[in-house]
Amino acid sequence: MPLSPDTMRIMIIGCMLSMVVLAAFYLRRRELSPLAYAAWGLFALVLPLIGPFIVIWLQPGGNRVT
Description:
This protein has 66 residues and is mainly alpha-helical. 68% of the residues lie in helices and 6% in strands. The protein is built from three helices and two strands. Strands 1-2 form a two-stranded antiparallel sheet. The radius of gyration is 14 Å and the shape is elongated.
């Protein structure tokens, strides 16, 4: 069953949004200043395909002890 171009576009956008949400949840558990949160979050949004992976890979800030 071939997929229509519109279905493929929706799936790609869904994956990109999922990766941004994943990066946001990852950053939430890090100890960063508000400016650093904004900068890393903006980085993940500006580069939606590789930004979230880079944010998690570089591990900004320290682990928050809860």
